[in-house]
Design goal:
Layout lengths: L3 E8 L8 H16 L5 E8 L3 E9 L19 H13 L6 E7 L12 H13 L3 E6 L2 H10 L2 E4 L4 H20 L1
Parallel strand pairs: 1-2, 1-4, 4-5, 5-6
Antiparallel strand pairs: 2-3
Helix pairs in contact: 1-5, 2-3
Length: about 180
């Protein structure tokens, strides 16, 4: 089993309000599942709406606290490209355990980024993939999936409801397990 560094980028824009508790529970279940996996795992968490905030830098996964309604509050727009690009930039200057895996979960489309464009993000992701980085993009609509493909991330779909959100986080956990086994 390989070590893994997971950079989780979680949408907290206003449209996530309908699955607020599901996103919290899904992330916490994902984190819990990764704690029990063999090998060393580091986890960083980026939350975004109109702005991008690093909730946790890459730390041993057992040190990352669960999300709560106080630490994850949906509001605002979707600075998706800035969240992904900023996370990659921050990760370049930090310790990486094994394979770097970037996981993006969003229910919306880009509408608020100021630093990164689709083209600049695609170039950054392409360069990282050449060095072994993996990218998983969980989105709710065909437009999300087209966006994921345009930037070079592997798209997976989910429904923005309780079962769909739980399934998305479970799929992310399965993908992380598959990356460990490569």
């Amino acid at each position: 089993m390989k070590d893994l560094t997971i950079h989780f980028i979680l949408d907290k824009s206003g449209s996530m309000q309908s699955i607020w508790d599901d996103a919290i529970g899904g992330f916490n279940a994902f984190r819990s599942k990764q704690v029990s996996e063999p090998g060393r795992t580091l986890l960083s968490l980026t939350l975004f709406d109109n702005t991008v905030a690093e909730a946790h830098p890459a730390l041993p996964i057992a040190e990352i606290a669960d999300l709560t309604r106080a630490t994850y509050v949906p509001s605002g727009g979707t600075a998706l490209y800035d969240a992904i690009g900023s996370t990659i930039e921050r990760a370049q200057g930090t310790e990486i355990a094994g394979v770097p895996l970037v996981v993006v979960l969003t229910d919306g489309l880009e509408n608020a980024s100021r630093r990164f464009t689709r083209a600049s993000l695609a170039a950054l992701i392409s360069a990282k993939k050449l060095t072994g980085w993996e990218f998983l993009y969980l989105g709710t609509t065909p437009e999300n999936w087209a966006d994921a493909e345009a930037i070079g991330a592997a798209p997976m779909s989910f429904r923005a409801d309780a079962a769909g959100t739980a399934g998305a986080f479970a799929a992310a956990a399965q993908h992380a397990a598959a990356v460990r086994r490569k």
